[in-house]
Design goal:
One of its GO terms (biological process) is tRNA threonylcarbamoyladenosine modification. This protein is an alpha/beta fold. It has helices at residues 33-36, 44-66, 85-102, 111-117, 162-173, 179-187, 212-222, 237-265, 281-294, 303-306, 316-321; strands at residues 2-7, 12-19, 24-31, 73-81, 106-110, 130-135, 140-147, 150-156, 270-274, 297-300. It has 2 domains: 2-117 and 309-321, ATPase, nucleotide binding domain (Nucleotidyltransferase, domain 5), CATH 3.30.420; 130-304, ATPase, nucleotide binding domain (Nucleotidyltransferase, domain 5, 2-Layer Sandwich). A hairpin with a 4-residue loop joins strand 1 (2-7) and strand 2. Helix 5 (162-173) crosses helix 6, helix 5 (162-173) packs parallel to helix 7 (212-222) and helix 6 (179-187) packs across helix 8. The chain starts with a strand and ends in a 19-residue tail after the last helix. The chain binds adenosine-5'-triphosphate, magnesium ion and fe (iii) ion.
């Protein structure tokens, strides 16, 4: 027996078939990067429309790979919060429709809890309790995770998410979208100390982050205040590399400092990291160094499970075990529900 998981919170349409024991039997993912590239960001209406076109083929592919008929499914699980309203709606509507047609219970997944759960996949022992760090295009937050379904919000960004800052800096420099991989590639050749960019809220005794001042500092380094045209920049490859490396280091310094403080404060034994920015190698290395120094365990989700996917929807098995099903009347919740 297995469950079907559906993910459509942002710009990835994904489905997976996961066996009772956690084994991934089938998985399919359609990315929309090429649709949003020209806008250098995810356009909600474009994303929703693309989900409509892709969701059924993606579900069919996952089921075909698993090679099981719908009768053998025990439940239909779907990421229902948080995310873009139009995107969430497509996934939830598909899940409800299949739940009715195949007479299966519905399970609602919190997408952020699933990002942390990505660290659990393939592990014999429980990663919980732990401190969870989610760093993606839409989120940068720390949680005290007592169990897979029991997360307490410690703090998060008060403006831009870390991934969003990478994307915006890449746009200013004319680098590819999404910006994270492009900026980190350019940073390889750069000097992280070339520019001293701000580390906002670094010494504030809370777990909040702010990246919009950093983004503005990079901008003023490139053009004057009020100037919006970045097309006339005449930067050498070395200058671009130095800006990328210095910017990346500023983001990493704050992420590492706040995460290790959260681990200490919560007396946690491990830090579990998920979300697209967790794919960043320099961040991983810096977190590992902090873990070695402070004596906690670091678990970062495998790179392919850092960005949005349906495999991390395996967290639905935890809800299946306690029969925590959602009523068919359940609606999407685009906003972040911190207490749940
Ligand atoms: P959500 O925030 O809802 O989880 P999302 O699609 O914005 O959705 P992800 O798919 O988890 O988030 O991650 C995408 C983000 O990760 C982008 O902002 C991208 O620039 C960033 N990213 C990807 N690879 C790297 C990297 N190597 N270094 C830094 N950032 C990266
Ligand atoms: Mg994405
Ligand atoms: Fe996500």
């Amino acid at each position: 027996m297995a469950i079907l998981t559906i993910e459509s919170t942002c710009d990835e349409t994904a489905a997976a078939v996961i066996a009772d024991d956690g084994q991934v039997m089938g998985s399919a993912l359609a990315t929309q990067t090429e649709l949003h590239e020209q806008f250098r960001g995810v356009v909600p209406e474009v994303a929703a429309r693309a989900h409509v076109e892709r969701i059924l083929p993606v579900i069919e592919m996952a089921l075909a790979e698993a090679g099981i008929p719908p009768e053998q499914l025990r439940a239909i699980a779907v990421a229902q919060t948080p995310g873009l309203a139009g995107s969430l709606l497509i996934g939830l509507t598909a899940a409800k429709t299949l739940a009715i047609a195949w007479q299966k219970p519905l399970i609602a997944i919190n997408h952020l809890y699933a990002h942390i759960y990505a660290c659990q996949l393939g592990r014999e022992t429980s990663i919980y309790p732990c401190v969870g760090l989610i760093v993606s295009g839409g989120h940068t937050s720390l949680y005290d995770c007592r169990g897979p379904l029991e997360l307490r919000y410690l703090g998060g960004t008060i403006d831009d998410a870390a991934g969003e800052a990478f994307d915006k800096v890449a746009a200013m420099l004319g680098l590819d979208f999404p910006g994270g991989p492009a900026v980190s590639r350019a940073a390889l050749e750069g000097d992280p100390k070339a520019f001293s960019f701000p580390r906002s809220l670094l010494n504030k005794p809370n777990f909040d982050f702010s990246f919009s001042g950093l983004k503005t500092a990079v901008r003023y380094e490139l053009v004057g205040p009020g100037e919006k045209d970045f097309s006339q920049l005449d930067l050498s490859a070395q200058q671009v590399a130095d800006i990328c490396a210095s910017f990346q280091q500023a983001v990493i310094d704050v992420l590492v400092a706040k995460s290790r403080r959260a681990v200490t404060d919560s007396r946690a034994e491990r830090l579990c990291v998920g979300g697209g920015v967790a794919a960043n190698r320099v961040l991983r290395a810096a977190l590992q160094q902090a873990a070695d120094e402070d004596g906690f365990e670091l678990i970062v989700a495998p790179p392919e499970l850092c960005t949005d996917n349906a495999v991390m929807g395996a967290i639905a098995l935890e809800k299946l075990a306690i029969e925590d099903f959602a009523p068919l009347s359940i609606d999407i919740q685009p906003g972040l529900q911190r207490g749940r």
